[in-house]
Amino acid sequence: TSQPDFKQLAAAHGIELDKDSSMLRAGGADAEYFGAMARDDSGAYWMLRAPRRGDVQLAGRQEAIVLSFVRGKLPVVVPDWQVHTDKLIAYRVLPGIPAAEVDPLMGELIWRLPQSRTPSAFAETLGETLAKLHALDVGAAAAAGIPVMRADELRSRIKLRMEECNTLAPVPEKLWGLWQKWVDGDAFWPGHVSLVNGDIYHPHLFVDADYRVVGIDDWSRAEVNDPALDFSLYFAAAGREAVEELIRRYEEEGGRTWPRMADQAEMYYWASPVRFAAYAMKTGDLSHLMNVKNMVHRYASMLEDSGYAG
């Protein structure tokens, strides 16, 4: 479907955008939402998101529950949805700037952080935020309506998703073997679960001029699950050394760790096709289903090139 007329859509929800059309910029779009950032006639800036499909509308209601639960309990700002309907989600732009942005043409990250070494303020504040998020009461999260996985269910769900992925696109032997070694390896898996954001990724992390994390956008994948999930996309973007440093900071702030936590975060990266296959099956989108095969073979090829053995 085509991008909606955000000016008209905003007006229908009581937000009058600036008459200067250059103050409306498409951006932040993904597979779930059309997105734009715009200035209203009072000079305030808004993020506008329009669901692409009906299942995204349902997911939005779930995300709203999460945002309500975490707001005010973390040392960062989270979105405050001032408009939430099946047609539009609108909230004021978070403070700061994203730590990275996705190049819409190349799909690569455009970094706002220095790349020679992750600024200590960034790792410190993100570690603190994740420690506080993961310490939130799981029972209270469940009572609020947030989905909960038990620690003893983690491996059974990932095993099922591996089989589904293998059905959609037969997984090459070396990659499949690594997945089996991971899922059967007791030391990888935590004995506890936490409320996780599920999508801790540099474009969703807003930083101030000193590179301190001041806001986190996108809570659509939040649930009670394996805390290592919140380090997996960070690994994909920043590498193993950065993940180990973040986990060290996290532990200093009271985060609960285990010896192979960094390995667990890395294994979620190597199992990315499993997560994508589950997403493709959920949406039923033919292009996503066809891309599962491409993703499986891309990760199998990267594994061969890396020499990684788990």
Low-confidence stretches: none
Outline type: globular
Q: Roughly how many Å apart are the termini?
A: 42 Å
Main β-sheet, spatial strand arrangement: 1-2-3-5-4
| Mean model confidence by pLDDT | 93
Q: In percent, how helical is the residue content?
A: 40-55%
Structural class call reads alpha+beta
The largest pleated sheet is described as: 5 strands, antiparallel
Task: Give the strand tally.
Answer: 12
Rg calculated over all Cα atoms: 20 Å
Which strand-content bin applies to the residues? 5-15%
H and E string: HEEEHEEEEEHHHHEEEEHHHHH
Give the count of helical stretches: 11
Which features does this protein show?
310 residues, alpha+beta, 5-stranded antiparallel sheet, 3-stranded antiparallel sheet, 45% helix
Summarize the structure in short.
The chain has helices at 6-12, 54-70, 120-134, 138-144, 154-168, 173-184, 229-238, 240-252, 261-270, 272-283, 286-306; strands spanning 24-26, 33-39, 45-51, 81-84, 89-92, 97-98, 100-102, 109-111, 194-196, 205-207, 213-216, 223-225. It is of the alpha+beta class.
What does this structure look like?
- It is a single chain.
- The chain is an alpha+beta fold and 310 residues long.
- It is 45% helix and 15% strand.
- A hairpin with a 4-residue loop joins strand 4 and strand 5.
- Helix 3 (120-134) crosses helix 8 (240-252), helix 7 crosses helix 8 (240-252) and helix 8 (240-252) crosses helix 9.
- The longest helix is centred in the last third of the chain and has 21 residues, at 286-306.
- 36% of the residues are buried.
- The model has no long low-confidence stretch (mean pLDDT 93).
